[in-house]
UniProtKB/TrEMBL annotation:
It holds the Pfam family DegV. It comes from Deinococcus reticulitermitis. Keywords: Lipid-binding. GO terms for molecular function: lipid binding. It comes from the Bacteria. The keyword Signal does not apply. The lineage of its organism: Bacteria, Thermotogati, Deinococcota, Deinococci, Deinococcales. This is EDD domain protein, DegV family.
Length: 287
């Protein structure tokens, strides 16, 4: 049976943490890490080098969204004239605005979809869009599948230290100092209504944070519910093993995969972090 020709191509931005076994290999408009006068696109710096710089460089890096020109380059790598651009949440970044500027500069028909999330949850939506494309279906079907995936997917993460959020201006100095004094670790999720970070829980230790992340997943979906899991780790891959072990004890796992948090997102969370994107049962189009 011959594979139908795709009607459109999918492109995305550096909010994506690609999961190896999903259809996530698409052109990417990269975010960048800026150390003073030195700038690295996220595909030009390894996670290990970024961690080394975070721990040794007196200049704390900043991150920057893709420029319209970087989006244009991603468009040019796509194989069809019709494009579907999947962006990180507009509540977290101006990447969508840059994609809209690039759309005005290209001769192609570009549909822009705000994922309202990031990381492995964004990877789930890119997979949905790519599945539709590879089946020869249209952009409207891809949009319906991405919205269904978004509605049922939750992303939770925890971090070892609040220092990097403080240094990057994402959390106030007093809040960071208080969190450090009490050794509190936040469990953060993404608000579906506006695509911004909200605190879901707190734990007294980093290991407690991992347990709290998995407890949030079970609370959301109910013990015994079959799950798909995208696991994220920073400098310690074994954190993902621990989270999977906790969840496997309470849920049948119908699919799971893991990946390291990309270098630019690591600027904000620091070297050690653990995240889980979770959704119930099979993919919406498989039901």
């Amino acid at each position: 049976m011959t594979q139908p020709s795709p009607q459109f191509s999918v492109v995305t931005d550096g909010g994506l943490d690609a999961l190896p076994s999903l259809l996530n290999q698409v052109p990417v408009a990269p975010f960048s890490a800026n150390f003073g006068e030195t700038t690295y696109a996220m595909n030009e710096i390894s996670r290990e080098k970024l961690y080394h710089e975070l721990q040794t460089n007196p200049v704390h890096p900043t991150s920057s969204q893709p420029s319209p020109q970087q989006w244009l380059r991603a468009f040019e790598k796509a194989g069809t004239s019709d494009l579907l651009a999947v962006t990180i949440s507009s509540g977290l970044s101006g990447s969508r605005n840059a994609a809209e500027q690039a759309r005005d500069l290209t001769g192609r028909l570009v549909t822009i979809h705000d994922s309202m999330t990031l990381s492995a949850a964004q990877a789930f939506q890119v997979h949905a869009a790519q599945t539709a494309a590879q089946r020869g279906l249209g952009i409207q079907t891809a949009l319906e599948w991405m919205r269904a995936v978004h509605e049922e997917t939750e992303l939770y993460f925890t971090i070892e230290t609040l220092d990097y959020l403080r240094r990057g201006g994402r959390i106030g100095r007093v809040a960071a100092a208080l969190g450090g004094l009490l050794n509190l670790k936040p469990v953060v999720t993404v608000d579906k209504a506006n695509g911004t970070y909200v605190n879901a829980a707190r734990a007294r230790s980093y290991q407690g944070g991992i347990e709290a992340v998995t407890a949030q997943v079970t609370r959301r979906f109910g013990e015994g519910t079959p799950l798909r899991l995208g696991l994220l780790y920073g400098s310690h891959p074994e954190d993902a093993d621990q989270a999977l072990s906790h969840l496997s004890a309470r849920h049948p796992i119908v699919w799971s995969d893991r990946t390291g948090v990309n270098p630019v997102l690591s600027i904000h969370v620091g070297p050690r972090a653990l995240g889980v994107a979770a959704a119930p049962g099979p993919w919406p189009w498989e039901r």
